[in-house]
Structures are given as C-alpha cells and as structure tokens.
Here is the input.
Amino acid sequence: MFIIENFFTALASVLHLFLTLYMYVIIARAVMSWFNPNPYNNIVRFIYQITDPVLERVRRFIPPISGLDLSPVIVIFVILFIDRFLVSTLRALAY
Here is the structure.
C-alpha cells in the first residue's frame, strides 16, 4: 500500500506546485496591467496566452466594475481554495 501512499503524496505535491506557480503568473499579469508592456515580447505573450482563457471565463460572469477588473482576485481565491481543499484531501488519502 505504500505505492498508493507515495502516489497520492507526489500528486498532491505536484498539484500544489502547479497551483502556486499559476497563482504567481496571475499576479504577474495583474501587475503588468498597471504598466504598458510591449505586446510583442515573448514573455508577455506567454503570460497572456496562459492566463487569458481562465480570466475571460471569469470576466463573462463578473465584468469590470468602474474600470476595475476583479477577475485576477477571484481566480486567486479559487486557486487558494482548490489548493487548500484538494491538496489537503489528497494528502489525507495518502495516509
């Protein structure tokens, strides 16, 4: 049974790392919106490509309020919830 335990522990760790990195990318996207980054920069295009699908889904339900886009904040809260709930559940299943 230690194989299943190690599998769930590793899965929880990888999921936690992925969610944390994606949260930092969302934060970078929000900070970039304060400035005028070069849209032809490869890093800027990469960040837009991996964050736009998620942020656009949230923007469909919650449009910007007085020019303030709350979608990054909502996505970060969802990421934190998934991280706390799913990763903790996977670690509990491992034991």
Observations:
- The chain has one domain: 2-94.
- The chain has a mean pLDDT of 92.
